[in-house]
Amino acid sequence: MVTSLINHERIVTTVPKAKELRRVAEKMVTHAKKDTIHARRLANRVIREKPALTKLFEILGPRYQDREGGYTRVMKLSKNRAGDNAPMAVIEYVDRPGEIRAARPPPKRIAKNLEDVLAAVGIRGGGGKDAISP
Asked: Which of 25, 40, 99, 126 has its CA 20 to 30 A from that of 63?
């Protein structure tokens, strides 16, 4: 199921399966961020398809390099499954193109972007709230 999430980046499943899948998927992205041989072998224990493992380490790992967790989102759907009335949910990776709801950017990215914006308009930061100079 982790392999399907990596391949499609969003899947629909039951709520208990989605919550359990989130735990495993977060660990796989953490391994992908490290990008060592040991991390690749640990991920290979769970993800057995080579294309999915390649996507994990080449696309998903660098995408979440500055995020400290919270790589997935579980959203409960309003309608239960027709056959057995099981509660359904969508699990997806955050910060991806075509996501249902935009994620809050991590604090590091907000601070970096603010400094870039201030530098672009000619404001130097670093000295506190009175450090604005023309």
From this structure: 126
